[in-house]
Amino acid sequence: MSGRTLIAVAVAAGAVASCGGDTGDVVAPDGPLEAAATAFTASTALVPGRPVSAGLFVVRPSDDTGDAPIVLERVRRASASPEVRLVGAVVAGPDRPMGAFTAERRWPPSVRFTGVAAPVKGYAIPTTERARRTGTLVVLGLQAEDLGRFEVREVRVDYRRGDERFSERMPMRFSLQVDRRYP
User: Fold this and answer.
1) Most buried of the four, 17, 62, 144, 175, by CB within 10 Å?
2) Which domain holds residue 47?
3) Which tens digits make up the pLDDT trace of 53-86?
4) CA 80 → CA 8, 119, 154, distances in Å?
5) Number of domains comprising the chain
């Protein structure tokens, strides 16, 4: 058996309360930002402690946002296993390469999956029709040192629109399975 470990990242970003979870559902928070619900799973082999890039958390402006940009300030875990550490977060805008990106065995993610990723702090989410349709991908860097199964159930997204500030808990689910049985 090698020293490599499997980290299975099961992503089910969606409405935990409604349990709908169909691709395309929208979880509408109180502010002008929405989380698009998706459900995908990916697995990758890693050494314990090495971060993984976990994507498919997509946010987009709500239909009634208007033209004022939504500026991201911070993304952080809100409800998670204590063993999971958030090591970073980047965003890829609506012009990113389209396709399913769920996980990659490195942090930060490579350009081939996300296009040019930008830091979260200060990123202005466009309010164009394309941005409403395709959204902005938020990619989290997650790390677990211990063996076992760990989850991130919610993230908190801090953002502003004009002088208004918002701090929204957005339901999502990242499951990390760290297990030495796999090569």
Assistant:
1) 144
2) 5-179
3) 887 678 888 877 777 889 999 999 888 888 888 9
4) 16, 22, 7
5) 1
